[in-house]
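Deviation from plan, reported transparently: zinc ion complex.
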Amino acid sequence: MIHYFAEKTWPELNEFIRQEAVIILPVGTTEEHGRHCPVGTDAMIARGFGDMLAEECDKLGVPALVMETIQFGFSMAVVRQWPGCPNVNPRVFEDYVFNIVDSLVTMGFKKIVMLDCHGNHDCLLRLVMREIADKHGVYTMTLSPSALSADVYNKLKKDPQGDIHGGEWETSCILYLKPGLVKPEEYTSVDAIRCNSPLRGPVSTWGLQKTITGIYGDPTTASAELGRATLEAAAVKGAQYIKEFQTVEF
Ligand SMILES: [Zn+2]
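Because the crystal trials were delayed, the predicted structure below was used instead.
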């Protein structure tokens, strides 16, 4: 059974605090994802993955509360040349998430897991983790479904270069979570990743290859089955990490 933070009363929340429940905070964003995927792709993956993770926590006997998904965040200007991104300044976003987590810790929750479902947020969420630890001595966790399922994806993927934005993996996730929202007739491989250079990583991939249609990858090989397999693997592994996290004292 999934428990949603927003649906509880304060006495019920007190009971979850007493049980030392884990807070799952899905963090997405809203931005263009090519001509074939909805602008809410990252937020939809965050919400869907949050639910799947909570179900796996339940199976392991770990009490968990899922927060409402953070829908808006920071996107680099390169994706803002197309409509779809109500952009938030990165410093405002970092403060916003810090304030939410700070309040949760102050009300008594100690195990907080942020779900990182948008590449531009990785460094900002890790900054929140460090600032919370400095202020409260409470260590939070960040989980990314793409990182958690990388080994499964690498085995199953048909696009040898993989996905960065709106390609095989993200399109597969939306085909699984919200199939009616993907437009296969708009698929194109013109933005398949070609920059296999050692600079991929040290330099933002967006700077190494120009995007034509707003994506970075090849959605033509996407499938709902790939989305299901990778998200389920990520949820199982993420729940195992959370169970281990529950045993850490601070
Ligand atoms: Zn995305």
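Residues 57 and 227 are 20 Å apart (CA to CA). We consider this an acceptable substitute for the interim report.
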